[in-house]
Recover the amino acids of this structure.
């Protein structure tokens, strides 16, 4: 499973601002993957790939939700992961980070879903 080519996993957001990531899941043949079949989807933000998570969002706790729509296209399955980064999550962040997501199948097997870069930019007050 991989994130769709049209789904950029790199993003920039103003520190303390809310943003939503929308990531389409595709199989090796480019067909949408039904994420509803996954027992867990875990998203994390960290300083680097080997460091502890600064922010973690889980499907089981509502931090990752599912959709069947992505960039104006409607799919027959819930192939889109929506990750909401609330304003409070990034209020004290500034600089460059990495983020990634993994999925857990019903049998307990885990697979990487996607990786990307995240930049939190401090905005000047007006």
């Amino acid at each position: 499973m991989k994130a769709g080519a049209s789904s950029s996993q790199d993003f920039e957001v103003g520190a303390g601002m809310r943003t939503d990531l929308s990531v389409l899941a595709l199989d090796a043949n480019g067909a949408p993957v039904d994420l509803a079949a996954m027992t867990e989807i875990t998203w994390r933000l960290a300083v680097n790939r080997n460091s502890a998570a600064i922010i973690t969002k889980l499907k089981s706790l509502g931090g990752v939700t599912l959709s069947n729509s992505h960039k104006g296209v409607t799919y027959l399955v819930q192939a889109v992961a929506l990750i909401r980064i609330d304003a409070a999550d990034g209020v004290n962040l500034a600089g460059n980070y990495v983020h990634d997501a993994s999925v857990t199948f019903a049998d307990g097997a885990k697979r990487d879903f996607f990786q990307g870069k995240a930049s939190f930019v401090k905005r000047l007050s007006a």
In short: DSSP finds one helix and eleven strands in the chain. The CA atoms of residues 8 and 103 lie 18 Å apart.
